[in-house]
Structure formats: structure tokens, C-alpha cells
Design brief:
The structure holds two protein chains of two kinds.
Chain A: H1 9-36, H2 41-49, H3 68-81, H4 83-103, H5 106-117, E1 122-126, E2 142-146, E3 149-160, E4 167-178, E5 184-192, E6 198-202, E7 214-225, E8 229-230, H6 236-272, E9 274-275, E10 278-279, H7 284-312, H8 318-343, H9 353-364, H10 371-381
Parallel strand pairs in A: 1-4
Antiparallel strand pairs in A: 2-3, 3-7, 4-5, 5-8, 6-7, 9-10
Chain B: E1 2-7, E2 9-11, E3 32-34, H1 36-52, E4 55-61, H2 67-76, E5 80-84, H3 94-107, E6 113-117, H4 128-136, E7 140-151, E8 156-163, E9 166-173, E10 176-180, H5 192-200, E11 205-206, H6 247-260
Parallel strand pairs in B: 1-4, 1-6, 4-5, 5-11, 6-10, 7-10
Antiparallel strand pairs in B: 2-3, 7-8, 8-9
The chains are: A alpha+beta, B alpha/beta.
């Protein structure tokens, strides 16, 4: 009896609670927030009140310590209804809270985690730069130690949760020197929002996740105390890779939840909509689409839960999380496409939530490592010759 | 202040299927939820506790899986919960259920206030709440949409009852039993911390013996009513007329029609 697919009582209750919350509180406002490109402080706060920030953080820092699978289930359920709110939650946890929780010293954890875990504050992860996307090691942002201060110069782009009124701190990856092998030494430094020389600009005009917050960040001789270094100097690249391994699970959860939501909408519509005198779902061509969607969602859930199980049990999970992220995001793409197709002309209208699913899915095979990067990760794990680049 | 809330687990569907042979609900494959009106009852109890202090105890009678609704009650903040479960209760009608619940309330030391949902969405009888009050010998205030005041010193409660023709303000001495409608509040969701606590909790089960129930008053023996047949009535043909048009056109039309039919003069 080694295999066990049952969720615990706690996980089942959590899923019910989050589903209730998403259906009652997010669904009625999701379309409007999306259309207005409006970040919801209210919903962020509500997610905090319900304990959805910091589910993997121990209770002494304000988390609920219910484990990573519970977190994944929560993201899945929010994404089933709305990608934007799921993005706020997933980025807030995986990219905001987790580096501070895993690499911060006691003082840093005490300072930031309690507010982050209640949704009163958000932290962001400043990694991507205009010229360093998939090639994350090519950061040009620099941090130079001058006396007791790091002086940071450079810029970051597409940083989720970085420019809201409650964005309090950014974990910035910067070049802090050269390593012996000639490559850049990267370190992560905590830069509080509002620090002189730290300029933020909200990005508008997104196709996806329009109600989530995305920012461009500029650092101009921005000075922070040297104690703001996260973990050890030179550990930035390793911290970033580990953070993204965990982040990929939450991206996969967003894709899985989104696919589930789009599928349910399509199934419902297929039963209600009649053409040629019968429900469109009764036509084999449509029934097969629905059967494919249901099957793919089930497969996605299996690889994601397995990867999460490995993570929770402290086993290597980098390969499986890349597989889950790649498969689920590409699967969401296919499912959302079918869902719109089944809705016909109505699926092209903003009034129908499948329209939002169709747009939102696209981020998932780009953000936190493109599908191509996931294939590189997987290829390396399975031992292909060379670096697979 | 000690508040006891009585809740019931019901099938999660408005499209209840009935076994035509036994005339009972088909429960297989149907998820169970807490009767929605009972969630308002739990919420109101929590709000009273937050304002006046005290404890909220939640009880349910049902099969072992009814423990789920009690876990939810713990997750939102109930202090104590009890499952009343025993084969001896099987087949209880509203009379026997009200008796068993009232015995349970006595067993756990009584209450200053008992709160029930106005009715359960499966049986829709609305009899159990009033039945408990009768057996406990306390006043009953049904269809409560608002609690105006609870005075612990003078031991009284003032509520608004939502009736078909309006709202009625009623005062009663405590202890009392109220049944609540959904206008009374908006039930909260449990937090993750609450869920974590509730999922681990050991929930006590009370048997017929524990609550000193008279075996002739529970189960089939104690149930003078039985279900002969459950069916969905045929939709009545004909039906009414829907007036279409602007408000200033349809209102005079409606008045004329009502006068023609002598509903109004």
C-alpha cells in the first residue's frame, strides 16, 4: 500500500473553502477587474485573512504550515476561477515569501514574513531584466559594496506584485562580482520599496492576468544596508534556481486549475447549447474534445501532485516540476482552445469566462521558465549529451 | 453565554433523486453539505460570542460521516462539537429527532440560547427547531432575520422575525430557541489555520444511552410519521400571464386586471 491518492481531511476541507471563496468572492468581479486592469487590494487581503499566503511557512512567522500540496490545491482552485488572482497568490508565495523564508536570516524573517503571510504586504522577486530572460545568469544589475551599504544599479522587468501600494520589498538578484571561473557572481539582496533610488513603474497593456500587478523596476545608486543580503554572497544563482523549481509547481497549478475551469465551462455549455435540435455535446466531434480535455487534465494533475509529493518529501523534484510546468501549461493551452471552440462565437466575447482563460493560458508557457527552458531542464536530467541548449 | 447550534448534514443538490421503491433519498454518489440555513445559525452564534463572550457548541444527529459538518463548524470557530450517532436513532422522524436533540442539549448542560436554521433543504419540514423548544420548555422565535438585543442581566432577547407580510419584533426571556433565515448574516469561510485545527480534532460521539434517551421515543419506534411516497408534483398547466412593457404601462394594466378578478377593490 505505497501508492495513495487520497487527500487528507485537511486538504479536502481546504479545497472546499478555497472553491467557495473563489466562486463567491472572485467570480462576480473577475471580468470587471480584468477589463479595468485593476489590482484588487480587497481580494488580496481576503486571501491573506483565509491564510492562503504562507501555507508552507511555519506558524511562528504567521504561516499555517499545512504543506506544499495544500498550497498547490489553493492555487489550483483560485485559477479555476481567475488567473489574475491566482497570479497574485502564486507569485506572492513562491516568489515573494519563499526566498525570504528559505534563505533569510532570523531578523529578516521576523521583519517581513508576518505581514506577508497575512496579505497585508507583498514581496516580489526581481530576476528578469530587459536583456536577461531565459538566460537569467546574464543579469546586468550590479550591487557594489561601499562601506556598510550595497549600491545597486540596473533594472528589472515583468516583476509580479512589485508596484502595488502594499508591495513592501523586492528580492533583487544582482551581480556582486566575478567568480574564479570568470562567470558573474550573483547575490540576492532585499530592497524595500520606497528606498531612495528604487523607482517603480506599473506595466499596462497586458494581454494576460490583467488584474494582477506587474512592474518595471529601476535602481539608480540605490543604497541598502549590507545586512540586506539574502543568505550568502554568491548564492544568488542557486537561490534563484531553487526558488523557480518551487515556483514551477505553482505555475503548473495555475495551468491545471485554469484548465479545470475552462473544461467545466465547456462541459456545461455543451449540455445547454442546442444546434440541429440537440445539445452540441452529444455530437461525437464535441464529445471527443471533452473526453480529451478531461483526460489531459487528469494527467496534468497526476504529474503535478507527484512532483509536489517529491518536493514535500524532500526528494529531488526539479525534473518532475519542469515536466509538470511544461505539460500543464501546454495542456491548458489545448483545453482553453477547445473550450472557446465549443462556445463558438460566444467564446470570443468578454462576457464569457472562457475568453479570459484563452488569453490567460498564454502566460503559463512563458513565465517562470518558458516551455523551451523546461525542455532544456528535462533534457539535462535525462542525460542527453551536451547542455541541450 | 452558552449557545448551542443544531445542524444537519444534507445532500448537496437541488436535484434530489428518490428511490421509487423505498421512497427515500438516494444518497450514493451525492456529496453532502451542511444544511445552508444551519450555516447562518453557526455564524450568528459566533457573532454573538464575539460580542458578548461565551461558548458555541454545535451538535448534529446523523450517520458517522455527518462528522464533516462538525469539522466545518470547528474550523470557523465553534468551541465544542458533538456527533449524536447510534443505530437506535435510525428512521427517526422530526418528532423523534427533536426529542433526541433536546435530550442532547440537556445532557451537555443546557443552553442560554439554541439556534437552528429555519428548515433543512432536504426535508423542508421546519419542525425540528420548534420541536426542540417545546421539549425543552423554552420560548421559540422562528424565522429570525435580526437579533436586535441580547440582555444577559435581564435574561431577555429581542429579535426581528421575517414574515410574509413584514417584520415582527418580538421579545422573549432567555433561555430561548431561535430559527434563522438567510437574511440574518453572511457566513464566514474558515481560515487555513482553522481548518488545520479542525481536521485534527477528536470529535466525541454520543449514543442514545449517553443522552439518556427513552428507546420508545427514538428511531422507528418513536416516529409516528412515515413516508408513504415522495414525488415531484406535475407542473400545473395554464399558469399566469407575464406583463411586458414599461413600468408606467404595466402597473395600471396590473391594477385593472386585479380589480377585474376582484382581488382588489
Amino acid at each position: 500500500m505505497a501508492l495513495d491518492f487520497d487527500l487528507t481531511e485537511e486538504q479536502q476541507m481546504l479545497r472546499k473553502m478555497v472553491r467557495n471563496f473563489a466562486e463567491k468572492e472572485i467570480a462576480p468581479v473577475a471580468q470587471e477587474l480584468d477589463e479595468k486592469e485593476e489590482f484588487s487590494y480587497h481580494l488580496t487581503r481576503r486571501m491573506g485573512e483565509l491564510g492562503l499566503f504562507g501555507p508552507f511557512v511555519s506558524e511562528e512567522y504567521g504561516g499555517s504550515n499545512v504543506g506544499y500540496l495544500s498550497y498547490i490545491i489553493a492555487v489550483e482552485e483560485i485559477a479555476r476561477i481567475d488567473g489574475s488572482q491566482a497570479a497574485t497568490l502564486a507569485a506572492g508565495n513562491s516568489l515573494g515569501i519563499s526566498p525570504i523564508y528559505y534563505y533569510g536570516n532570523e531578523e529578516q524573517k521576523q521583519q517581513w514574513l508576518p505581514d506577508l503571510c497575512t496579505g497585508k504586504a507583498l514581496a516580489s522577486f526581481g530576476l528578469t531584466e530587459p536583456n536577461a530572460g531565459s538566460d537569467a545568469g546574464a543579469s546586468r544589475t550590479t550591487a557594489v559594496l561601499e562601506g556598510d551599504y550595497w549600491v545597486i544599479n540596473g533594472s528589472k522587468i515583468f516583476i509580479t506584485n512589485s508596484t502595488t501600494d502594499i508591495s513592501k520589498v523586492c528580492v533583487v538578484q544582482a551581480v556582486t562580482g566575478k567568480r574564479e571561473d570568470g562567470r558573474n557572481e550573483l547575490s540576492c539582496i532585499l530592497v524595500p520599496n520606497g528606498t531612495p533610488g528604487f523607482i517603480t513603474k506599473t506595466m499596462h497593456g497586458k494581454m494576460v492576468w490583467r488584474a494582477s500587478n506587474t512592474g518595471e523596476l529601476y535602481f539608480q545608486d540605490c543604497k541598502v544596508p549590507k545586512e540586506n543580503l539574502l543568505g550568502r554572497r554568491g548564492d544568488g544563482f542557486r537561490q534563484m534556481l531553487a526558488t523557480l523549481d518551487g515556483g514551477r509547481l505553482s505555475i503548473a497549478a495555475m495551468a491545471l486549475g485554469g484548465a479545470q475551469g475552462a473544461f467545466e465551462l465547456a462541459l456545461k455549455y455543451s449540455k445547454e447549447r442546442e444546434q440541429f435540435g440537440r445539445p452540441i455535446g452529444s455530437f461525437q466531434v464535441n464529445a471527443f474534445k471533452l473526453a480529451d480535455m478531461a483526460t489531459e487534465i487528469e494527467l496534468g494533475r497526476l504529474i503535478l501532485y507527484k512532483a509536489t509529493w517529491l518536493c514535500e518529501n524532500h526528494r529531488p523534484f526539479s525534473k518532475e516540476s519542469a515536466m509538470a510546468k511544461m505539460f500543464c501549461s501546454e495542456m491548458y493551452h489545448r483545453v482553453a482552445n477547445h473550450a472557446v471552440q465549443l462556445h463558438g462565437g460566444y467564446g470570443l466575447m468578454k462576457e464569457y469566462a472562457v475568453e479570459r482563460h484563452y488569453r490567460n493560458q498564454k502566460l503559463l508557457d512563458i513565465g517562470e521558465g518558458t516551455s523551451e527552458v523546461q525542455r532544456i531542464v528535462i533534457a539535462r536530467h535525462i542525460g542527453v549529451p551536451g547542455r541541450a541548449l | 453565554m452558552k449557545i448551542v447550534v443544531c445542524v444537519k448534514q444534507v445532500p448537496d443538490t437541488t436535484d434530489v433523486k428518490i428511490d421509487p421503491k423505498t421512497n427515500t433519498l438516494i444518497r450514493e454518489g451525492v456529496a453532502s453539505i451542511c444544511n445552508p440555513f444551519d450555516e447562518y445559525a453557526i455564524e450568528e452564534a459566533l457573532r454573538i460570542k464575539e460580542k458578548l463572550g461565551g461558548e458555541v457548541h454545535v451538535i448534529t444527529m446523523g450517520p458517522p460521516q455527518a462528522i464533516e459538518v462538525l469539522r466545518n463548524a470547528l474550523a470557523v470557530g465553534a468551541d465544542k462539537v458533538y456527533l449524536i450517532s447510534d443505530k437506535a436513532f435510525a428512521g427517526s422522524d422530526t418528532l423523534a429527532t427533536a426529542y433526541a436533540l433536546s435530550k442532547t442539549i440537556e445532557y451537555i448542560g443546557g443552553a442560554d440560547l439554541v439556534i437552528c436554521g429555519k428548515q433543512a433543504i432536504d426535508g423542508d419540514t421546519a419542525q425540528v427547531g420548534p420541536g426542540i423548544a417545546t421539549r425543552l420548555g423554552i420560548p421559540q422565535l422562528t424565522y429570525v432575520s435580526k437579533i436586535r438585543e441580547i440582555d444577559l442581566e435581564k435574561k431577555k432577547i429581542i429579535v426581528e422575525r421575517l414574515l410574509e407580510y413584514g417584520r415582527e419584533v418580538v421579545e422573549a426571556p432567555l433561555p430561548a430557541l431561535i430559527t434563522v433565515v438567510k437574511d440574518i448574516n453572511e457566513p464566514r469561510l474558515p481560515s487555513l489555520i482553522g481548518i488545520k485545527k479542525a481536521a485534527k480534532a477528536q470529535i466525541p460521539t454520543l449514543t442514545a444511552k449517553d443522552i439518556n434517551a427513552d428507546e420508545n421515543r427514538i428511531g422507528l419506534k418513536g416516529s409516528p410519521t412515515w413516508v408513504v411516497k415522495v414525488f415531484t408534483p406535475e407542473a400545473r398547466g395554464g399558469g399566469g400571464e407575464i406583463l411586458k412593457g414599461e413600468l408606467n404601462e404595466v402597473v395600471p394594466l396590473l391594477v385593472t386586471k386585479l380589480m377585474e378578478t376582484k382581488f382588489i377593490k
